[in-house]
Design a protein that fits this description.
The chain is of the alpha+beta class and about 190 residues long. The chain folds into 2 domains: about 140 residues, Medium-chain alcohol dehydrogenases, catalytic domain (Quinone Oxidoreductase, Chain A, domain 1, Alpha-Beta Complex), CATH 3.90.180.10; about 40 residues, no CATH class. About 15% of the residues lie in helices and about 25% in strands. The protein has a 5-stranded antiparallel sheet. It has a 3-stranded antiparallel sheet with strand order 2-1-4, with no helix packed on it. The chain has a two-stranded antiparallel ribbon with strand order 7-8. The structure holds zinc ion (ZN) (2 copies). The site of one zinc ion has 5 residues, from loops.
Length: about 190
């Protein structure tokens, strides 16, 4: 498959031919339809995040269609659309994983950093961390929601019932959350 590959930090991505990933146990094989570009991708290329797998396929705002379902995966069918976010895998058994706070897991592994991501024709992803996507969003519209949208919405929910939400800086997350209406008087 064709993929844009990071072979060394501080170097441009290179178009390369890589073997198509497989749907291993617990994973989905996705035919990538769209993948957003996140500021974190630039941090990985620029060396601000220091421990990527190399060579690496970046990209953690993946929208794809399920082409194969790995062993032990339940609830996903071939042809369904799936979204893949930054949080790619966790241990499943620590005190954070067992209380709905997997993002704090010490053994968390991230899409497009520890795990090959979506700047490619195909990607595989742990089915437990894939999202179903509503039909009224196109592939391109849905992709940025998988990181920028998710971050802003999570912050909005965590902010509780205050009447105002301050947005400091105005990047990918803020410009999306500013469009969310959940009955707040002022955002
Ligand atoms: Zn991101
Ligand atoms: Zn854990």
């Amino acid at each position: 498959m064709r993929a844009m590959v990071l072979t060394a930090q501080h170097e441009p991505l290179r178009l390369m031919e890589l073997p198509r990933p497989e749907a291993g146990p617990g994973t989905l094989l996705l035919e990538v339809a769209a993948c957003g570009v996140c500021r974190t991708d630039l941090h990985v290329v620029d060396g601000d995040l220091t421990e990527p797998k190399l060579p690496l396929v970046l990209g953690h705002e993946i929208v794809g269609r399920v082409a194969a379902v790995g062993a032990a995966v339940t609830g996903w069918e071939i042809g369904e659309r799936a979204g893949v976010p930054w949080l790619g895998a966790t241990c499943g058994s620590c005190r954070f994983c067992t209380t709905g706070r997997e993002n704090l897991c010490d053994e968390a592994r991230f899409t497009g950093y520890h795990i090959d991501g979506g700047y490619a024709e195909w990607a595989s992803a742990d089915a437990r961390f894939c999202f179903r996507l509503p039909d009224d969003l196109s592939d391109v519209e849905a992709a940025p929601l998988l990181c920028a949208g998710l971050i802003g919405y999570r912050a909005l929910r965590a902010a509780g019932s205050g009447e105002r939400l301050g947005l400091y800086g105005f990047g990918a997350a803020a410009h999306i959350v500013a469009q969310v209406e959940i009955g707040r008087a002022h955002v």
